[in-house]
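Worked example 3. Consider a protein that binds S-adenosylmethionine.
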Amino acid sequence: MKIDYQEPSKDLLMRIDIHEKYGSANIDVWTNELLKPQAGMKILDVGCGAGKLSFLFNEYTKGEAKITGGDFSEELLDKAREKNKKVGANIDFQFLDFNQPFKFEDNTFDLCTSAFAIYYASDLDFTFGEAHRV
Ligand SMILES: C[S@@+](CC[C@H](N)C(=O)[O-])C[C@H]1O[C@@H](n2cnc3c(N)ncnc32)[C@H](O)[C@@H]1O
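Given these inputs, the predicted complex is written out as structure tokens:
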């Protein structure tokens, strides 16, 4: 059965906020300690939403990584771009539908991540395949 439900952006933002307020562990600290993003790395954040993880990597690398955030919600991308300007970051937020072939050459990125998003993929093998390829 194919489910066509798409969660509205306001619900997604509320969910992100709930994770931040009530999550029992600090996932941001854990993510950085686990992945250790480095200055000079090219990083892709798949399903970046309003850019939480992208901004986290940017802070952790002191703006020295080349970060791309991809999402199919233009509304959330706009929020991310607004924050990009506000904090003076240089993250490339762009449209990406992770159910479609990613528009990047093979081996473009050193690190490809996704937080709270990949479970929306309609074919996990396909999406992981694209993330691994780029
Ligand atoms: C719960 S939010 C998480 C956002 C962000 N990663 C974070 O941690 O704050 C899930 C995200 O997945 C995105 N998403 C869902 N389906 C997608 C698709 N097919 N392609 C790209 N992004 C998608 C949504 O637009 C949303 O931004």
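Take a moment to read the result before moving on. The pocket of S-adenosylmethionine is lined by residues 12, 15-16, 47-49, 52-53, 71-73, 76, 96-99, 115-117, 120 (CB under 6 Å). The first strand starts at residue 42 and ends at 46.
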